[in-house]
Design brief:
single chain; about 260 residues; alpha+beta; Pnp Oxidase, Chain A; 6-stranded antiparallel barrel; two-stranded antiparallel ribbon; 6 helices
Length: about 260
């Protein structure tokens, strides 16, 4: 099954500035969806993931150690034969609901929970890779291993930023090789304000389990999430963003 047959075309440059490009730049943090097959079964784990590109051919990620994504990648770090490296996809979409499902569901629950239905994926059974049909850009990737060079120093690249709070050194856990890049033949829909707020609210909500044991930090995070939800509901006529608010309400209720 060829992904190019499904409204995608192979892109020669990841950073080209075209109408179908996300105009990705090195060292900046982008939010993608990593989709990886569970070992030995045709089930897929999906995770909303901060992606930091090093160049056109490599990137780094730092998933939480408590996540299924970290567990799957960790067990493939010591593969010696490059032909046996685990392959997976990283996807960028303008549908906020995919980020929501990937970030909030299935964490630590193993393969019995698929955050994104296989009906929404293009599956290459030979490679064992699932691509999100709704992607605007998707990458076929392989795991090189754990990142062994310590924090990434991007000071030279960010030398024009003089604000003291600008982060210029980044931690990295896994180093990823980009094998192929695809872009959708369909035009992407621009994010509106509701989309951006919804994405930020989802990312904040995904941190709740981390702070569940610290009452004060947990309550402060809840208050921030509730404020963002109020803003989304106040001015957004975006059905997907409003649906995200409903999903977040259901997610928060599990903690009380």
């Amino acid at each position: 099954m060829n992904i190019i047959d499904f409204n995608f075309e192979e892109s020669t440059s990841l950073f080209e500035d075209t109408i179908n490009s996300l105009n990705l730049k090195p060292f900046e943090l982008f939010e993608g969806i990593l989709i990886i097959k569970w070992p030995n079964i045709v089930k897929f784990n999906s995770a909303a993931m901060g992606i930091r590109f090093l160049d056109e051919y490599s990137l780094v990620i730092s998933p939480y150690q408590t996540t299924d994504t970290y567990s799957i990648l960790k067990q493939y770090c010591n593969v010696q034969n490059k032909n046996d490296r685990i392959k997976f996809s990283i996807n960028f979409t303008d549908n906020i609901l995919y980020y929501t499902n990937s970030a909030l569901f299935g964490n630590g629950e193993g393969p019995q929970t698929e955050e994104i239905s296989q009906d929404d994926l293009i599956i290459d059974y030979e490679l064992g890779v699932g691509f999100l049909k709704d992607s605007k850009i998707c990458l076929l990737c392989e795991l090189l291993g754990e990142f062994k060079f310590g924090p990434i120093d991007a000071s030279d690249y960010l030398k024009d930023f003089n604000e003291p709070n600008i982060l210029k050194r980044f931690n990295a856990t896994f180093e990823i090789n980009i094998i192929k890049k695809y872009k959708s033949k369909k035009n992407s829909r621009p994010f509106n304000r509701g989309d951006y707020l919804a994405l930020e609210t989802v990312l904040l909500t995904s941190k709740l389990p981390t702070f569940a044991s610290d009452h004060n930090k947990f309550i402060d995070l809840i208050k921030k999430i509730r404020f963002y939800q109020k803003e989304i509901r106040r001015f957004s006529a975006n059905k997907n963003a409003l649906k995200v608010c409903e999903i977040i309400d259901q997610y928060i209720n599990k903690f009380f």
